[in-house]
Protein 1
Amino acid sequence: MDIKEYIASGILEAYIFDTLSPQERAEVEALVVQYPELRDELNAIEAGLEDIAMATAIQAPSHLKANIMAAIGGEDEGQLVGNVSQEAPKVIPMPQTNTGVWKYLVAASVALAVVSSYMAYDYRLKWKSSSDAFAQLQAQNSQMAEQYNQVNNRLDELVADIDVISNADFKRVNMAAVDASQSFAASVYWNAKTDEAYLNIQNLKTLTEEQQYQLWAIVDGKPVDMGVFDFDVEGLIKMKSIKNAAMFAVTIEPKGGSVNPTLDLMQVAGAV
């Protein structure tokens, strides 16, 4: 939390002048307990307002109390004036104070406090609105950046796929459905010089979470594992390298693959 920015928002002044909602007041009181800086600032504001009130107060003349007591006959007049004289007290005219000026000063102080409170409250609302808008903009920018990275990564993958497909050293081996009534299809791009192999899925059925597809190469009449893959993978899938492949086939196996292919669950196959 930025303490300085929170203080500058004027919410503490709004709290003192009781212009906050109950929820906002509770929030301020909780933060004041949590942050000593806020408590000190709140005390300083209250002390400043008290100083203004004291500065605008009118101090009574020092002899006023004695004159009042003499008027009600509570004590001997000579005693009331400090036993200085037993004679009748002299009538001392009270000095004329410019009460009109003080009234205007007090009114001006109150008006200034009200205006300051309103400006602080208005500033706080604008600050809060700006903060919310900025946070929303940051979230939108983060989302756009993530989407851009995803698109950029996908473009890189497409470029790499095109490089494989357009490379004359890669031979495309089409694998058709073993069951002629099905439309399953896939293909392998195999480079006999580098032994690299990439799988491309055209159409394979959806599997359960406990199943995966597994690619096999037939080498010297024996199946060789080339790796497992999921049914919903897009683009070219890099598989295990293989030498001297004569055929490729895909079977359905338990998740993680099998040591030997499940022949009755073979989906597609194709000769090199």
Note: Residues 177 and 184 are 5 Å apart (CA to CA).
Protein 2
Amino acid sequence: MKTNHEIDYKILGEEMQSVEIELDPQETVVAESGSFMMMDNEIQMETIFGDGSQSAGGGFMNKLFSAGKRLLTGESLFMTAFTNTGTGKKRAMFAAPYCGKIIAMDLFQLQGKVICQKDAFLCAAKGVSVGIEFQKKLGTGIFGGEGFIMQKLEGDGMAFVHAGGNIIERNLLPGELIKIDTGCIVAFTSGVDYDIQFVGGIKNTIFGGEGLFFATLRGPGKVWIQSLPISRLASRIISYGRAGGRKEEGSILGGLGNLLDGDGM
């Protein structure tokens, strides 16, 4: 028997997606601060410590500890709960923070646990625990791109995460291994072994432009991969701005182009 609230949903849009959650009376969805888009009347919004999961019950200190864990993953102490206080079905919508895709994860079908990058979580059915996952290996924590701490989603309800660009899903067989840029990892199930590997080769190290390390993911389990990590997008925007907007063009042509398209005014 499921212990988390059973919510229905619909994902809308293509490149800038949102998720519409349908709530029966007294059902609740918990969302990351800043993801709210709109809701029907008779849905009550409440700011809560932590994730509001049942495991956080049992007193103020337990709730405070649950909320405090979120600081380690770079999130706020607070989340927002949206509860249908009416008599019929009501809807609330939550929007992705940047271009990409929203991934719906049924934790009941995923052995009750998924590990994801720190800023991936969007919203979930009440009862889903949003905690932290420490990397056990020193090298993985230092060089793995995501650091020592990742998020873990536990429970038997629906959870929604967001990732950049297009999403590729891979089901790894036992012992099957893939090598991947550390920033492109969105999430993986608990049976997947996550490690890092040195790229190797002096030319690759100095001139490869892909970093010194990449991640290795070994099955069995399911892996979600994003084509455009937000860190990669941000670095390109910063470098573009520093180069005056036309890094790929020569100084004369670049200046002329800026003048023609209005940037030089």
Note: The CA atoms of residues 27 and 84 lie 6 Å apart.
